Amino acid sequence: TYVVTENCINCKMQDCVEVCPVDCFYEGKNFLVINPDECIDCGVCEPECPVEAILPDTEPDVEKWVEINTKYSLEWPNITRKGAQPPDAEEWNGKPGKAALLDP
Ligand code: SF4
Ligand code: F3S
Questions:
Q1: Closest Cα to atom 2, ligand 2: which residue?
Q2: Smaller CB count within 10 Å for the chain: N or C?
């Protein structure tokens, strides 16, 4: 499966949602997640993310994000169309410590 990881937080660009063939993205206030059980591993969303927040679960240290994506994909609404980006999205790209800012 692919999952959304830390660098999406407060960037939330949403380019990823438009390309998913199975519509398995879910939207939180400042972060998106993938439902790992619905993801068919096609990989097309990975290069669409401008901040490289989408990773396959075969990458190191992604286990924690698989858990987070699983949990919130069951709680948050589905998203299939790109909405407005946060006005300061670019400023948050690459900022350290964003995991603590995830707003459920
Ligand atoms: Fe959707 Fe494919 Fe990305 Fe999985 S890898 S979330 S199926 S676009
Ligand atoms: Fe987040 Fe990248 Fe999608 S910033 S909303 S994973 S395009």
A1: 49
A2: C
Distance CA 81, CA 59 (A): 27
Q: Which residue has the tokens 């998203």?
A: 79
> The complex's ipTM?
0.98
pLDDT by residue for the chain (104 residues), tens only, comes to 999 999 999 999 999 999 999 999 999 999 999 999 999 999 999 999 999 999 999 999 999 999 999 999 999 999 999 999 999 999 999 999 999 999 99
Spacing, Cα 24 to ligand 1 middle (Å): 7
Looking from the CA of residue 7, the nearest atom of ligand 2 is: 4
Closest atom of ligand 2 relative to the 15 alpha carbon: 7
Question: Which letter, b or e, does each residue of 35-54 get, where b requires 16 or more Cβ atoms within 10 Å of its Cβ?
Answer: bbeebeeeeebeeebebebb
CATH number for region 2-79: 3.30.70.20
Can you give the residue ranges of every domain in the chain? 2-79
